[in-house]
């Protein structure tokens, strides 16, 4: 993928996310004025340490919606003339963040009261997003070498296809809605264990690459940024309390800027 083609795709992605952000904000504001945002009942909670706050759930979803265009704008200005394969796979992570925003439709349309195809589709989209987010960094670690650049489009398609297949084959319990406005996954312990194993494998690969490869000092900062942003990402999609929401946002944004800043310094002379 050429630099010009990559930048064009990023501009298109930014344009689409801005339209989605504006439409979502208008829809939420209208629904709020009409008292049509309905909190799910008999929900399942992943984190039970703090008091539940439905408002924090809505804010966390909107933060995902805002995070993507903000980071895309940063990428456009910072990486306009920087060729890096890792950035292509980082788009996969941003796709995962966009997938989280569809959760807003569950309270807006009271879908948790139904077993509709729309509800089922939201559950599958969210699960696919939660697979592609950590898997993107795994691909970035293993398929970003210079000799792999000619295969970046093929590898990215494999990334998207694999994540979609896994996400859509994970069974869903449409009779149970979570406190974060999504459908409860069947075999949820196994599903989240797999996600954690993907992150662990990525981190281990990055550490080995740093120790045994010809990595610069910035690569260590890249690893730190990855750990921090993924911690923020996981906490943000599980946030149903302000005590979880606030640190999640700090970790996500701080980790992202450290990761991207380190990536830019690694390639700015290439």
The end-to-end span amounts to 16 Å
Structural class: mainly alpha
Number of helices: 9
- Uncertain stretches of 5 or more adjacent residues: none
**What sequence of helices (H) and strands (E) makes up the elements?**
HHHHHHEEHHH
Helical residue percent?
Answer: over 70%
Main beta sheet: 2 strands, antiparallel
The backbone outline, from C-alpha atoms, is globular
As a percent range, the share of strand residues is under 5%
Provide mean pLDDT, rounded: 90
The counted number of beta strands is 2
Radius of gyration equals 19 Å
> Looking across the biggest beta sheet, what order are the strands in?
1-2
Notable traits:
mainly alpha; 9 helices; 71% helix
What does the model show?
With 270 residues, this protein is mainly alpha-helical. The protein is 71% helix and 3% strand. The protein contains 9 helices and 2 strands. The chain has helices spanning 3-33, 54-78, 85-100, 105-108, 117-142, 152-169, 188-212, 217-238, 242-267, and strands at residues 172-177, 183-185. A two-stranded antiparallel sheet has the order 1-2. A hairpin with a 5-residue loop joins strand 1 (172-177) and strand 2. Helix 3 packs antiparallel against helix 5 (117-142) and helix 7 packs antiparallel against helix 8. The longest helix is centred in the N-terminal third of the chain and has 31 residues, at 3-33. The model has no long low-confidence stretch (mean pLDDT 90).
């Amino acid at each position: 993928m050429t630099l010009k083609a990559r930048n064009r795709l990023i501009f298109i992605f930014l344009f689409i996310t801005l339209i989605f952000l504006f439409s979502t904000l208008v829809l939420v504001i209208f629904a709020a004025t009409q008292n049509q945002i309905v909190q799910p009942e008999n929900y399942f909670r992943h984190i039970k340490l703090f008091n539940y706050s439905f408002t924090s759930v809505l804010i966390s979803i909107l933060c995902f919606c805002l995070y993507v265009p903000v980071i895309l704008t940063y990428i456009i200005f910072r990486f306009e003339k920087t060729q890096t394969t890792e950035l292509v796979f980082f788009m996969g992570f941003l796709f995962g963040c966009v997938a989280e925003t569809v959760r807003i439709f569950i309270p807006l349309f009271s879908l948790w009261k139904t077993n509709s195809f729309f509800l089922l589709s939201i559950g599958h989209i969210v699960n696919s997003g939660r697979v592609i987010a950590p898997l993107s960094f795994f691909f970035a670690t293993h398929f970003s070498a210079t000799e792999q650049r000619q295969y970046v489009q093929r590898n990215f398609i494999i990334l998207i296809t694999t994540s979609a297949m896994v996400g859509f084959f994970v069974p869903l319990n449409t009779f149970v809605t979570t406190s974060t406005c999504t459908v409860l996954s069947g075999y949820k312990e196994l599903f989240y264990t797999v996600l954690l194993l993907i992150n662990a494998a990525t981190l281990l690969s990055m550490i080995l690459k740093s120790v045994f490869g010809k990595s610069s000092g910035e690569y260590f900062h890249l690893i730190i940024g990855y750990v921090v942003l993924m911690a923020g990402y996981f906490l943000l999609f599980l946030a149903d309390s302000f005590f979880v929401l606030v640190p999640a946002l700090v970790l996500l944004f701080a980790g992202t800027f450290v990761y991207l800043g380190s990536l830019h310094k690694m390639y700015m002379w290439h």
